[in-house]
């Protein structure tokens, strides 16, 4: 059905308000349709903020949405995001075939449910669970939900242990680095847990167990260790954190567990740093979460969380629900959610295997090391880290008298060439330090890296040639962790 316009009734959809807005400085309220795609008697514009009274031809609606989305950036040039932006044609076909599958409906989609179970058992094995078939896990919408489920399990375990001996449970706290991703701040806010941030510094660039005893007490539900800090890509040494907690337990009797936030590193370390003990080989590691849609190489959104043993997930957190003819256990913040990404994850596990993942991650790692090496050679920059952990690194601007630009200006110049390379301040106690960061993902080739270095040098040369400083109002980061 085409969207026709009656002069008195639908003047908003036909553009009258836009005509008024053109000279007023207001943003127009309508989306105008290119006459090439409009049909006779069809609306010349759609209202932006109200549903159109009538529908339109599918070709017209498609073109409007297509043209809106076309204005987004080129994902391949986005060096800010960790999220996967490319899959092969077979994956794309599978995605379309599975777009209607509801992950929660295990009665109607039992094979998708079985595939989900296979995936997290594979991850449990990859992460050295003592008995991979006696673990428990689940897929999630992303690693943020996976982190929250891990945090909830820590809180419930702590609460139930305190209740058994008649101790108060009203002041739980969670210990973590000041450089955690915002999902942990949300967890503490949403679930009434006091966040205790261990500040990073130039001497302790990550949470490494230093001064941990100043933050851990009887109300600590757990410690978060990050395998790939969002700010810089560095690993937090899980073994050293565990050893610090061992010393605390020897002195106080407190048995504090670790949740590993492996959003990125949990899908990197097993393949290219196999001897690094960060996973269930470390006995205090209680649960691990990761993003399937980051270095799991799947489209967003998909996450995974797994507990060391089935008994480690408190039974009180698991719901058994009757849904569409069957009873099923569920532990999630979401209910209905896409099943397609779970099938895509299984496809990638089958498609690449261990050796394929190793090659993919090693390639990204090699590109990151090449980029950091080239940037380290430039007179203007000092590396914060070099991408030796996950293929992510950050750099700072060297002090130089009379320099008329900063990293925010460089961020803007690179954006003019299509590259998204964020500049931002470091977390508390280091907010005076500004860094710029690159994330290397699958699909960012050596050729693209060479092109980027060429553009970076051209941007620096332009900025060095300035006769006066860039406007200070431009010194803003549009990036959020």
From TrEMBL:
Catalytic activity, EC: 4.1.1.15
N6-(pyridoxal phosphate)lysine, modified sites: 294
Any one GO cellular component localisation term in the record: cytosol
A Pfam short name: Pyridoxal_deC
One GO molecular-function entry: glutamate decarboxylase activity
Lineage, top ranks: Bacteria, Bacillati, Actinomycetota, Actinomycetes, Bifidobacteriales
Organism: Bifidobacterium ruminantium
Name of the protein in its database record: Glutamate decarboxylase
Enzyme class: lyase
GO terms for biological process, alphabetical: L-glutamate catabolic process
Biased composition (Basic and acidic residues): 8-23
Gene3D superfamilies: 3.90.1150.160, 4.10.280.50, Type I PLP-dependent aspartate aminotransferase-like (Major domain)
Secretion signal, residue range per the UniProt entry: none
Sorted UniProt keywords: Decarboxylase, Lyase, Pyridoxal phosphate
CDD domains xrefs: DOPA_deC_like (cd06450)
